[in-house]
């Protein structure tokens, strides 16, 4: 059985979610977004959800233990392969993932880093919106809905994340860089590829397809 294990690395707003959605279809594997899972927890009203919500509102990262638990539970049901969007973010998380893959008899991952300059990221994040029902992502400038504030797919009102303000975004990016710099070095000697995420999504996808050895049309 061909098992594709792919990790998309990159800061908030780099386009991981957009690319993960397309790659999931191309590779016929599920895309696991830790961000989406954590947002669902925030909206659940549980003690765990409230704790996660408070952490994210400060621009902090959720603890390794919680993230590891969430991801491991998903991986256990994805024997044919999967794509990870937003995980791992630290070397301890990567080591946990390696141990989990080995225990399940799965191959080590192909890692794709999507690099985007900070100012571009801030502008992207401040303009983004999402549909809480179907998950489709929009941007008020680059990818607006046909009707303002309403999802094209299901007509539901679009939401903005409460933590998508410039001070919180810049703090989140700073913490991301500090946490993931060692992670990049951890993966660099493995099946690691870096692509320019400041291009349009189609060009970024072509670069990722090439890195994965897929035919580029």
Core attributes:
alpha/beta, 7 strands, two-stranded antiparallel sheet, 217 residues, globular, 47% helix, five-stranded parallel β-sheet, Rossmann fold
Structure description:
This protein is α/β, with parallel strands linked by helices. It has a single domain (about 15-125, about 165-210), classed as Rossmann fold, CATH 3.40.50. The chain is built from 8 helices and 7 strands; from the N terminus they run E-H-E-H-H-H-E-H-E-H-E-E-H-E-H. A hairpin with a 6-residue loop joins strand 5 and strand 6 (about 135-140). Helix 1 (about 15-25) crosses helix 8 (about 200-210). The chain is globular, with a radius of gyration of 17 Å. The model has no long low-confidence stretch (mean pLDDT about 85).
Spans of at least 5 consecutive residues whose pLDDT stays below 50 are none
Order of helices and strands: EHEHHHEHEHEEHEH
Work out the helicity level: 40-55%
Which structural category fits the helices and strands? alpha/beta
Tell me, rounded to a whole number, the average pLDDT.
87
Integer tally of domains: 1
CATH topology: Rossmann fold
Count of separate DSSP helical elements: 8
- CATH homologous superfamily? P-loop containing nucleotide triphosphate hydrolases
Secondary structure: elements and pairs:
Elements (H helix, E strand, L loop, with lengths): L3 E6 L6 H12 L3 E3 H11 L2 H11 L6 H12 L5 E5 L5 H13 L6 E6 L2 H9 L1 E3 L6 E3 L26 H23 L3 E5 L4 H11 L6
Parallel strand pairs: 1-3, 1-4, 2-3, 4-7
Antiparallel strand pairs: 5-6
Helix pairs in contact: 1-8, 2-3, 4-5, 6-7
């Amino acid at each position: 059985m061909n098992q594709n294990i792919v990790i998309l690395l990159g800061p908030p707003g780099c386009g991981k979610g957009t690319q993960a959605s397309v790659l999931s279809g191309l590779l016929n594997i599920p895309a696991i977004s830790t961000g989406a899972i954590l947002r669902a927890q925030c909206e659940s009203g549980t003690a765990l959800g409230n704790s996660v919500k408070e952490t994210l509102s400060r621009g902090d990262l959720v603890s390794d233990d919680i993230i590891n638990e969430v991801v491991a539970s998903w991986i256990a049901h994805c024997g044919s392969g999967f794509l990870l969007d937003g995980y791992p973010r630290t070397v301890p998380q990567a080591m946990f993932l390696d141990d989990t893959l080995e225990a399940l008899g799965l191959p080590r991952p192909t890692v794709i880093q999507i690099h985007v300059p900070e100012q571009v990221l801030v502008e992207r994040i401040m303009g983004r919106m999402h549909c809480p029902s179907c998950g489709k992502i929009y941007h008020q400038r680059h990818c607006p809905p046909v009707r303002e504030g309403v999802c094209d797919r299901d007509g539901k009102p679009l939401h903005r994340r409460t933590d998508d303000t410039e001070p919180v975004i810049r703090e989140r990016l700073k913490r991301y860089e500090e946490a993931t710099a060692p992670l990049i070095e951890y993966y660099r000697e493995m099946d690691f590829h870096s692509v320019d995420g400041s291009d349009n999504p189609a060009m970024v996808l072509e670069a990722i397809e090439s890195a994965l050895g897929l035919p580029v049309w």
